[in-house]
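batch_manifest entry 22 of 60
target: Aminoglycoside phosphotransferase domain-containing protein
source organism: Tritonibacter litoralis
requested by: lab member K.T.
priority: normal
notes from requester: please return tokens only, no post-processing; we will run our own comparison against the previous entry in this batch. if the run fails, retry once and flag.
--- input ---
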Amino acid sequence: MDGSLNDRERMIMGIAAGHFGKDVIRVEALKQSPHSSMRVWFSDGSVIASQRHNYRRTHLEAMVLEQLSPICDDVPTFLGLSDGFLFQSDIGHARLGDEILEHDAADRIELAAEACASIFRIQSAARQSGVVQLVPKIGTSQEWMENLVGSVDALQLFSGGIPDSFDFQAVADRLTVQKWDFVKWHCRPSYAVISDDGFLRWNGFDLSGSRHGAEDLAWLIGDEEWPIAPHDMLDIVKQTFDPHNGIGWDQYLDYLAVYTTLHCVQRFKLIIRGAQEHGWYCDQSMARKDSPGVDPNFARQLCQVGAFFADQSKLTRPLVRNFERTSFVTDAINQSDLRT
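--- output ---
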């Protein structure tokens, strides 16, 4: 056997060969998930072997894919679970976050629409299959809610304080879920792949759960590298909205606006923390894959998206000025080129 292989790679090759009953040619770590997923090559194609950070997450993802993939083509096909490894179909390596930047404006809108439509289809399949009843509920504790709503304090640094008209309790009440729906969670563009057949599919279901459902759209819209303008994203979500999800559009939009506003603050907070600890433009090569880059352009992007969505709900409208002032400051930081 190839002496360049490490023990983990040899183990995966052995498990995969036994599970599928054929020889493995080679294995390679996925660029986006080098520590948890490997591409396993056979003579007739490849599959993905995943072992998440803990047993529960691997088995949660396996259960979700086993239930969803027979009725939903927007997710990888479940191929089995063996010796702690989940095997799923290889949906490709063309990540949406990279691919969308290679297209013109019209094609970008089309790709964004397909990403949103696929999220709604996955949620519909989860309701149909009953998966939504099997996954854990997310954000049920008071501490979780306090951390989410209280994160707006991060905007005080550059904007002179949160206005008294922002009602923390009213926002928390709005985000209290009455009707639970499936969420993939972490619906960042790096988790969507354009497969060789041209279809967009999502992967990474190890953090799946249930909440309102709009959170998945917020993860996409509120990604600091997402190139689609927020007003275009709002139009896209409205066009692809699933009217059978049990929530009317107006109510859905209000929740989406409030949650996206706070999601932008959460991502902004991570960027500011990174800048405070390591300086702007610091090397991010060793950062966790879900960590935003420490770049004022990303901070400004989040402020612009946050301001737009904050203005869509009376509950978050008081924060618009905070976002605008903070965006102005981050723009100044970018122009000053404060590199470490």
